[in-house]
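In practice, a research group might receive sequence data for several interacting partners and want a quick structural hypothesis before committing to experiments. The following worked case mirrors that situation: the sequences arrive first, and a predicted assembly follows.
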Amino acid sequence: MHTFARTLPGLLAALLLATLPARAETYQAPEAFVTEAGGDFDAPEVLWLTGEIQDTIRAILGHRYASLRLRYWRDGDETLWVLEEIGKEKPITLGFRVADGAIVDSRTLVFRESRGWEIRFPGFARQFRGARLTDDRRLDRAIDGITGATLSVNAYRRLARVALYLHAEVSGED
Amino acid sequence: MKIDPRRLLAIHRAVGAVVAAFLVLLAITGVALNHTEALALDQRHLDAPWVRALYGIPEPEPEQAFAAGQHWLSNWNGRLFLDHRPLATESRGELVGAFAVQGILAVITARELLLLTPEGQRIDALAYPGDGTARAAAMRDDRIILGLADGRIVATNPAFTAFRPADVAAPAVSPATGEALPAGIRTAIREQARGPGITLERLILDLHSGRIAGPVGVWLMDAVAVALVALVASGLGQRWILRRRHKRPR
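A structural hypothesis for the assembly, expressed as tokens:
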């Protein structure tokens, strides 16, 4: 069969998929992320995002965090955060495990945008392992972007900084 | 068959009078469409009731509405409104119920429990255990009780930070038991929820093509185009007849 004829169904399927409306894709439920990391999902600690905390988050995200309260999970020096940030139009939910001021693990939990889902790949998330905050609250390393997923990558970077900042805040490491 | 020139002229004039009215319409709308950008026709929106009726655009209606203390929560195609103000948070699934509890608002959508300040700021959003879907809700003893789609019944803890299995009767409030939104709030939200309407360009384009009257209008415009060609033919025919008469020796 002609090459074009063979690839045509695939091309049409790709076009059809590209025109489908975005819907929430849960890669790992927040509950499962917390439980897998050893946290008790039903026994979170609570951090109210008021005053200086909200101001600092605003400096990192460029806007206030969407909620006034965050639930997080602590096990000794380790904290777990489930955070949301809008990539382009819809919130992306990410999970971060932080210990001793560095990211131990991070995951894309729920993705609701139509593009940029490639941030879910472990290879991308692996770049954040060991990342710390510098004095001016930036990541201490460069994170490689993904073509076509710039906004999602940027949202991931911002939330990584927020997770590290909040860990320092509740751990008194600042 | 011999055609009576006077009869042909009468038909030509009658058809011409009808077609002339459409020609004026086509000329005006055509000129306007040629200058869409200069006239900003694609920027001007029409939202008058007769336009909505003409295009069959329904008036937006709330999908569900619930009273919560002094406030009303309503879901308009996924957009949540607190009284007449839109919330920054979307409704994840249908609105199942809303309650005023401990000085805050608990808004139960199918996929998460939203905790709001009375001003509408999001305090927190809690997904349901096991990524469940809420079907019914109730408030008892300052706790939110939820009936999940898989038959489980869960309740919030006192701090509203987690759900626990609850051994209580199934809650009764569900999307089907929603209440009628007060007329004042409904009208105020409609103004925001109805969208910009159609552009003036669209209306003029549909006038030009006849689509404003549906398939019949398109056929009518086709008939006008055919009649116009027929008028040209009959006009040329009469001119030919008159020239022959003038040339014929008396």
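Before designing any experiment, note the following. The beta strands of chain A are 25-26, 45-48, 69-75, 78-86, 91-99, 102-111. Chain A is about 35% helix and 25% strand.
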